[in-house]
Amino acid sequence: MKQFIVFLFFIQICNLHYAQQSKVLNAYVTKLNSVKDYSVNAKIVAAVPMIKIKEVNAIIYFKQKDKFKIETKGIAVLPKQGFLDLNKFLATPSKYMAIESAGKEISGVQTTMVTVIPIDESTDVILAKLWIDSKRNIIMTSQLTTKSSGMLTTTYAYADQIPFGLPSSLVFEIDVKKFKMPKSVAANIHQTNKSTNNNKDQKGKITVYLTGYKVNKGLSDSIFK
Predict the structure, then answer these.
(1) Residue 210 forms beta bridges with which residues?
(2) Cβ atoms within 10 A of the Cβ of 124, count?
(3) Phi, psi of 30, rounded to the nearest 5 degrees
(4) Domain range for residue 117?
(5) Is residue 224 in a domain?
(6) Is residue 106 part of a domain?
(7) Residue 61 included in any domain
(8) What is the mean pLDDT of each successive set of 10 residues along the chain, which is 225 residues long?
(9) Domain total in the chain
(10) What is the pTM of this model?
């Protein structure tokens, strides 16, 4: 009996080691880590049920590993979880297990699905599912579940920044009730919810168009102060 228990423990250790060594995800993370910084022009289009939000133009700045800034004159409704937190989380493979399985076809591309489970329970991420194009090492679709904002589904499109794994557009599908809106927008949602009973499980969509990338130009830390 003891030998059987030891054998099962050995199998579990082997499976854990295998899970942490997802070649598909490792290739994506290597590409991700090649981006030391970037700036990019963004057009943000938010479609939230019963809330009118104007299109916003912005400049987004990023620097490894967690410096992030948006410059805009309007109200930018942008999910930090999908834009920054996912990549920050994936950049440290020691903090999660990654399990590969057969994926689905997305935009004519057969993907590999990688299920990512955090090892550290203190992280905001509960579970991440990634559908990855293993030939180009890019994420086609992601589904991120967090403690703070529920589930966020993101669809990616790419253009000339594929060598860096940077998308040309992102479409976020959000849970309106759990998503953290800017205060002024959140106030409008609160007032709207008082006047309707049809606010359960409402989904919103945020589309971000990205153009004019400047990658690895050595952004100054002063930009983020």
Answers:
(1) 42
(2) 14
(3) -60, -45
(4) 2-33+44-56+76-210
(5) no
(6) yes
(7) no
(8) 40 42 90 94 89 89 90 83 79 89 94 94 89 96 89 94 95 80 49 47 88 96 92
(9) 1
(10) 0.81
